[in-house]
Model the fold of this input.
Amino acid sequence: MKLTVVGCSGSYPGPHSPCSCYLVEADGVRVLLDLGNGALGSLQHHTDLGAVDAVVLSHLHADHCLDLCGYYVYRNYHPEGRLPKIPVFGPAGTAERMTRAYDIPGESGLGEVFTFHTVAPGVFEFGPFRFTAGHVNHPVESFAYRVEAGGSSLVYSGDTGPSDTLVELARDTGLLVCEASFLDGRDTHPDVHLNGREAGEHADRAGTHRL
Done:
């Protein structure tokens, strides 16, 4: 399993990084973990946009999902014709949220391009990947994911404050990709994000091999 950090800026793109987007590949299958604002441009440095097989969203804040609108344009109006549908896995209301963001007319929304699947805590599979989803600590419904393929594993925290669920998902994983939005000692919004110390503590409790 190969992981590429496409973008990791929080809330808005930075000068050298878009918002959250991680490309995971195994056995020729490519899945995006989140597709935040600005990510679609940087993603083209790493893969052909048409080669993405699925998108998995942690939650519906713009810095984790908004470039799905631009990706709809790419797949719907491709010069060679509309590309085949791909699945989008996300929290309840993902299809409606993204349709409102794009402000597309008609009843089909983005369904001509994407097949939306509502995530719940538990396991789902796609291609060679096994995903285990768990609710984490954020003001909106937000998931962390354990991703397993070919005998290896990684865990993506999404956005979260301190979370026992994240620790359990990350138990003995090969890699924890964990948010750390705040500086230690300057946390002004509890139960929204982690700081670097807390990210390390979560990894230590979980026995994560790498953070």
Summary: The CA atoms of residues 31 and 70 lie 17 Å apart. The domain at 1-119 is CATH 3.60.15.10 (Metallo-beta-lactamase; Chain A). The two ends are 16 Å apart (CA to CA).
